[in-house]
Amino acid sequence: MNTGSSKHYDVVVLGAGIGALAAAALLARRSWRVLVVGHGYRKSTYMYDGVTLSRRPFSFLTASSPAWGRVLVELAQSQVFRRRLVSLDPMLQVLGANLRLDLPPDTELFAREIDREFPAVRRIVDDLYAELARTNALADAAFERDAVWPPGSFWERRETERIVATLPYLQGSAQDLLADFPIEHAYRDVVTMPARFACDLAEGVPPFAMARLHGAWTRGVSSLAGGEDELVEFLIERIRAHGGDTRLTDRASSLVHNGKKVLGVYVDGDEAPVGVTFVVSDMPTAQLLDLAPNFTLPRASFPSVETRENRFVVSIVVRPEGIPEPLAIESFLLPKRGPMVHLQKARGGALDTVLLIAETLVKKGAPLDQAREAVLGTVFEFLPFVERHMVMCDSPHDGRPLWDFRAKEKAERAETAERAETAERAGQAEGAARWAGKRVGKPSWGLWPTHVDRANLRAFGGSLEAEPMIGCYRMADGDLHGLGAEPIRTPLGNAFVTGRTTLPALGQEGELLSAWGVARIITRTDRRKEKMLREMWSKVELS
Q1: Tally: H helices and E strands in the chain
Q2: Of 84, 109, 187, 199, whose CB has the highest number of CB atoms within 10 Å?
C-alpha cells in the first residue's frame, strides 16, 4: 500500500514523555531516522503577567537508576548530565499531625531524626532500611541487564522471567514490608505516601514496587534547575544532534495502515502523510488505536487498563515571608481531614516570589468545583502564613479563573494611604500615625482575589479550557507479578507504546525500562544496525 508520502522516517514518536523521548534518543543514536511529534505535549510551566505557574510537579527519581544510566552511557552524556544535577537535602519531608520528619541523605542525621520523632521503633526502622537496601541492590542488578520490559514474545518472556526471579517481594502486599510496625503507626505513611505519588497505579502498590519507589526517594534525590522542561530540552537536543527531527507543537490526526501494520502518520496541517516503518507513543494503547481508522482488533483478548484516579495540581505563588525556612523542596502533607498533598517548592517567575506546586489524587469523575479549595485547606493547615502572603493561585484542570491577589493588595494599600492622608488633613495626628503604620505591614487578604478569565492566559502558554489530568491506572489483568499492565507491542503491527501504562507500578523507571525494550526490538529488525550497536558498545564511554 502506497501512502503517497514524499517524506519517510524510520520511526515516528508521538508524545514527549520521558519514555518516548528516551526511546527516540536511543534510536537516533543508533542511526535510525526519527521524527518526534509532540501530539498535545504542553510544557510543564506557563505564565501570567511575569509569574510562573505549573501544570505538574516533576521529581527526578530515576537519576540513580541503572535504566537512566544506560541511556546516558549510550548517548555519551553521563558526565555532562551529572553536572546539571543538584542533590536535595533533605531528600523529602513529611508533615502530619504533631509530626515533622526530615529524611536527609546523611545517615547519622537520619538516625537523629528517627530518634527525635520515633524513638520507640528505631530498631524496626533500621531493619526496614537494611532490607530496602538489599532489595534495591537486587533491583539495580536486574535492571542493568539488557531485556524487554514488559516482555512479549516467548523468548523475551523466558529471558525477562529469569531476571524477575531474582527480585524479592513479588508476592503478597506492600504491608508485608511494614509488618513489624504497629497497626496505624505514623511511619507506615512515611513509607507508603511518597511511593504512592511516584507510582502510576490507582490502588494496591505491589510490595516490590513499594520498596523500589521508597528507595528512589531515600537513597539520594537529585533535581534539575529547570525541572521537567530541562530534561525534555536535554533529550530533544540529543535527538537533533543525531539527525532526528522534532515537531513538539504538532499532533497526529490519524495513522495510515493496511489492516495489519502501520504505514504512515497524518500530521495536522500536512497534505500528505509521513511514511513510517515504526510508530512509538507514550499514550495508552486504546488512545493510539483510536488514531487508526477502520482498524479491527484481533480476536485474541488484549489486556486493558482503566483510569481510576487523576492527579489534580494547584499552583500557589507566595511571597518568601509566607514560607517557613525549613520547608523542604519535596514534602508530603498528611492532614487530619482533607486530601493528602505532595508539595513541591520552586522559584517563582518573579524574583520576590516562591512557587508551591500542590498535587493530590482525585477519583475519576469526582467534581472539581471545590478541589482547589480542598488542596489549599491542606496547605494552610501546615503552612498557615501562606494564606496572607499569596500572590496568585491557579489550577489548569478545573477550568476556573486564575486568582490574582495583587489587585487586592494594591486596593488595600491605596485605601490605607487615602485614610492616612484624610486623617492628616483633618489634623488627626493619632489616626494618621495608625494608618501610616498599616501602610508598612502586609494586609491579610483571605480568599477574595481578582478573578482572571482563562482567555487572558492563552498568550502566556495557558489554556482556555480545563486541561486533562494525568491518570493513575487500574489493571484488568496484571503482568509480571503486578508490575506490568499493557504490552509494549500493540495489536497494530510495528506500533509500540512506552508510557505510564506499560509498567505503571514502577513510575518513571517503568517508562525508561519500556523505552529500552522498544529500542531493542526495533534495532533487532535491522541486522546491520544491530551489529553497529554492538561495535558502538565496545567503544562506549565508561561511567
Answers
A1: 15, 21
A2: 199
Chain mean position to CA 86: 18
Grid coordinates of 540: 562506549
Cα 103 to its chain centre, rounded Å, is: 21
Q: Are 504 and 510 in contact (CB under 8 A)?
A: yes
Instruction: Decide: 443 and 409 in contact? Cβ < 8 Å.
Output: yes
What does the pLDDT look like over 112-152, one tens digit per residue?
Answer: 999 999 999 999 999 999 999 999 999 999 999 999 998 98
Kind plus residue range of the DSSP H or E element containing 530: helix 527-539
Grid coordinates representing 328 are 523542604
Reading the block at residue 341, the C-alpha cell is: 498533598
pLDDT tens for 215-271 read 999 998 999 999 999 999 999 999 999 999 999 999 999 999 998 999 999 999 888
Q: What is the CA radius of gyration of the chain?
A: 26
3-state class (DSSP) for residue 519: helix
pTM of the model as a whole: 0.89
- Ramachandran category for residue 15: left, alpha or beta (phi over 0 → left; psi -120 to 50 → alpha): left
Instruction: Please give the Cα distance from 43 to 162 (Å, whole number).
Output: 39
Is the N-terminal amide bond of 320 cis, ω within 30° of 0? no
pLDDT of residue 482: 82
Phi, psi for 338 (deg, rounded to 5): 90, 175
Among 280, 341, 340, residue whose Cα is nearest residue 316: 341
What distance in Å separates the CA atoms of residue 11 and residue 487, rounded to the nearest whole number? 19
Q: How far apart are CA 221 and CA 77, in angstroms?
A: 19
pLDDT in tens, 63-92: 999 999 999 999 999 999 999 999 999 999
CB-facing half-sphere around the CA of 95: CA atoms within 13 A: 20
Give whole-number Cα distances, 265 to 19, 27, 257, 280, in Å: 20, 18, 9, 11
Grid cell locating 496: 509500540
Cβ burial, residue 7 (10 Å; 0-12/13-18/19+) = middle
CA distance 502 to 79: 30
